[in-house]
Amino acid sequence: MLSRLKQMLIKEFIQVFRDKRARFILFGPPIIQMLIFGYAATFEIQHVPTAVLDLDHTQESRELISRFSSSPYFQVRWYLTQQEELVDLIDRGEATVALQIHPGFSEELQKGQTAPLQVVVDATNSNTALIAAGYVNQIAQTFAQDYQADRMGRISPFLVNHIPRVELQPRPWYNINLKSRWFFVPGVIGSLTLVLVTTLTAFAVVREREIGTLEQIMVTPIRPFEFILGKTVPFFLIGLADVSLIATIGTLWFQVPFRGSVVVLLVGTVLFLLCMLGAGLLISTVSSTQQQAMVTAFFFIMPAVIFSGFGFPISAMPRWLQYLTYANPLRYFLIVLRGVYLKGISFNILWPEMIAMAALGSFLLTLSVLRFHKALD
Amino acid sequence: MRWVRLTAVARKEVIHIIRDVRSLSIVVIMPVVLVLFFGYGVSLDLKHLPIYVYDREGSEQSQALLKRFQSSDYFEIVRVANNYSELVKALDDGRAKMAFVISSDFSENLRAGGTVSVQALVDATDDNTANVIIGYTQALVQGYSSDVQLEWLQRRGQQVQPPPLSVETRTWYNENLESSAFIVPGVLAVVMSVIGAFLTSLTVAREWERGTMEQLISTPVTPLEIMLGKLMPYFLVGLFDAGVCVVLAIFWFQVPFRGTVMALLISSALFLIALLCLGFFISVVTRNQLAASQVALVATFLPAFLLSGFLFAIEQMPQFVRLVTRILPARYYVSSLKMIFLKGTPVAMLYSQLVPLAIFALVLAALATRVFQKSLV
Fold first, then answer.
1. Model confidence over A236-288: pLDDT tens digits?
2. Is the pLDDT of residue A328 over 90?
3. Which residue of B has its CA nearest to A64?
4. What is the number of structural domains in chain A?
5. A299 interaction partners in chain B (CB closer than 8 Å)
6. Which residue of A62, B126, B148, B349 is most buried, as measured by CB atoms within 10 A?
7. Is residue A169 part of a domain?
8. Is residue A355 very low, low, confident or very high in pLDDT (cuts 50, 70, 90)?
């Protein structure tokens, strides 16, 4: 059996590394995708293009505006004089935030009334809008507090020094500077592995079927089980190589900290690869042409990535969808990846995820092997 | 170019699509599935975030502050911790997204006056969620703080003045900050990429792989007729799918449609032509289904997904990535989609999107024809 398996493996490796184009496909797209994702995927909100319409022209209004222009979150690019300009800028999508200070602003402040600051936010991107509106509030709040303290200080310095004030000290753990990249890079490793290993495995089997060489192999003494091993072992190894490659890029190029142990990551990766080989084989058993395999893989990959917590928190999904994510191997692998990279945690915390992946992996592999036998008969 | 021959090639392609049940179903089902996936799966509207609280004091004041967390919709206190190590563990294994700590001298410090700190330990692996959590917590603490101040001033018989500033935020175009209104219109670009480039590149590459392309060429059909005949069915399919997406977006996800059908049709047609030609170009160059699908993935699907402004705001990307997005059709299409759906921008004001799209369509069409004709000699 071993010698037949060896022959089968040699054939597979020759096929996989046959020409330059084939070799490129194994490592080119993952690297390109890693780089694109690393640079493009970000939810950080900074330098929001901002327009200001100051109709008051007083020291107070200018002071308020300067707090926005000196903040890293906003970039005041336009100082307007007319309401129409403001509407036009927002309409064309050039300015995301527009601040409007009406005439009489400082007068109201001085009289001790509540002066309104009008803010228009382009909410076509609801996430940017939500966070930008939060920053506007923070800046306006601080301005108001300072103004009030200043006013009170003039009346009675004693009060200012003794008035109680509760202040929040946020401590963002694991990612002190709240960098999106630290969140996405470990996630990209997981989703790229998923895409690569399932499509390669599925294609490798289906191509033989489509071209007709599958029948040729089946008339040789090679047993179905050996055939399956011969088809999966190369992609298991390629998967491992790709994970190491993109993990290295993530750590060295994007400077994402690696706080945990390589062993934990390795065990997690092996378990996840088993799931993906199972999924790839399963796809191959239900497809007879490469186009069909591609389409089926697509319908597997999209939900697997979207409903994994890769970019969008699972807790924000409808409840019934949250339950479905428990059947998604990527969900667990992402927890392991981020846990190892950012939190530096180990088996004592990650064991439930490991067990879940092992269970899903054995289920998928058993199912696909059974189906595969059937498909051959 | 003869119309009869062109339609003959087109008819052959239609038969290919119809005969393969799965290809047919993908064409019909995919837009529905993708809109549902993204509509439900991609949401950043966070609620009921699990938090731990650790009240080291247990006084009336500290309980009053914690009550605000209890009654907030955004948080769910899953546990009242008794020691610090419990918090660390909960953040490590992800059971809590945030741990709120009140120190043991909280009420004493409040009585003494001045600034009192409370701590929020936030799991910042997901920077966006962390940002939102910090924002919500800040608002709660600030509310508590100003109530304490108010009470303190009243007790001292001070005249209480209204807050000096009120922020009146209006969120235009997406008044309720619905994630689905921001995400769903962009799904059209993803669907079109799959139909336009993915499927086309596969069908054409298959003809090369099987050698049927040579057979086609040996007939009196000219290269241009082959190309147009192959692409026309997919063009119609793409437009049909766009229609399906739009109907679902409007009637299922209640996304407002404020623009004109004309604007949508023009931009969709231009984008589709650009992508079909790109897909054709890829398949001519690669001549292999696996390679074609991988290249199409990197060249069309990923940009539509990542670099178009569909999910991630382009302004937040690094400078050179922003420059790269300028040479991608997806960017212009997604931005025109959002403008048509949410802003109701008329055709005449979409020139900065439509002109680049038209240029892409022309250039890619010329390129595909050139390469195809050359490949036949």
1. 998 899 889 989 998 999 989 999 999 999 999 999 999 999 999 999 888 88
2. yes
3. B165
4. 2
5. 26, 30, 33
6. B126
7. no
8. very high
**Out of A43, A127, A138, closest to residue B138 by CB:** A138
Residue A14 sits at the chain B interface (C-beta within 8 Å): no
- Residue B34 forms contact with A (CB below 8 Å): yes
Residues in chain A with CB shorter than 8 Å from the CB of B54 are none
Q: Which residues of A touch B122 (CB under 8 A)?
A: 170-173
In a mutagenesis test of the A interface, which of B294, B314, B324 is the best target, namely the one with the most A β-carbons within 10 Å? B294
A221 and A317 within one domain: yes
Domains and CATH numbers, chain B: 3-42+179-376 (no CATH), 49-155 (3.40.1710.10)
CB-CB under 8 Å, A124 with B342: yes
Range of the domain at A219: 2-42+179-376
Q: Give percent helix, percent strand, percent coil of chain B, each to the nearest 5.
A: 70, 10, 20
Based on the fold, state whether residues A137 and A250 are members of the same structural domain. no
The answer, for A87 touching chain B at a CB cutoff of 8 Å, is: no
Does any domain span residue A269? yes
Separation of alpha carbons A4 and B160, rounded Å: 89
Three-state SS annotation for chain A: CHHHHHHHHHHHHHHHCCCHHHHHHHHHHHHHHHHHHHHHCCCCCCCEEEEEEECCCCHHHHHHHHHHHCCCCEEEEEEECCHHHHHHHHHCCCCCEEEEECCCHHHHHHCCCCEEEEEEEECCCHHHHHHHHHHHHHHHHHHHHHHHHHHHHHHCHHHHHHCEEEEEEEEEECCCCCCHHHHHHHHHHHHHHHHHHHHHHHHHHHHHHHHCHHHHHHHCCCCHHHHHHHHHHHHHHHHHHHHHHHHHHHHHHCCCCCCCCHHHHHHHHHHHHHHHHHHHHHHHHCCCCHHHHHHHHHHHHHHHHHCCCCCCCHHHCCHHHHHHHHHCHHHHHHHHHHHHHHHCCCHHHHHHHHHHHHHHHHHHHHHHHHHHHHHHC
**CA A316, CA A308: separation in Å to the nearest integer?**
12
A212 & A305 share domain: yes
Q: Are B161 and A96 in contact (CB < 8 Å)?
A: no
CA separation (Å) from B166 to A71, A87, A114, A118, B175? 19, 22, 6, 9, 19
B178 and chain A in contact, CB less than 8 A: yes
Q: Is residue A70 part of a domain?
A: yes
Q: Which of A124, A166, A339 sits opposite B118 (nearest CB)?
A: A166
Of A123, A148, A289, the CB nearest to B171: A123
Closest CB to A178 among B127, B202, B342:
B127
List the CATH number of the domain containing A124.
Answer: 3.40.1710.10
Say if residue A159's pLDDT is above 80. Answer: no
Tens-digit pLDDT profile for residues A86-132: 988 988 888 999 999 999 899 988 888 888 999 999 988 888 888 88
CB atoms A312 and B42 under 8 Å: yes
A253 touches chain B (CB under 8 A): no
A172 assigned to some structural domain: no
Which residue of A127, A264, A285 to mutate against B (max B Cβ within 10 Å)?
A: A127
Residue B231 one-letter amino acid: L
The answer to whether residues A84 and A118 belong to one domain is: yes
Asked if B142 has any chain A CB less than 8 Å from its own CB, the reply is: yes
Q: Is the dihedral of CA A30, A33, A35, A38 positive or negative?
A: negative
Task: Return the residue in A124, A162, A194 with the most chain B beta carbons within 10 A, the one to mutate for interface testing.
Answer: A124
Model pTM score:
0.85
Interface probe for A, chosen from B125, B282, B297 (most Cβ of A below 10 Å), is B125
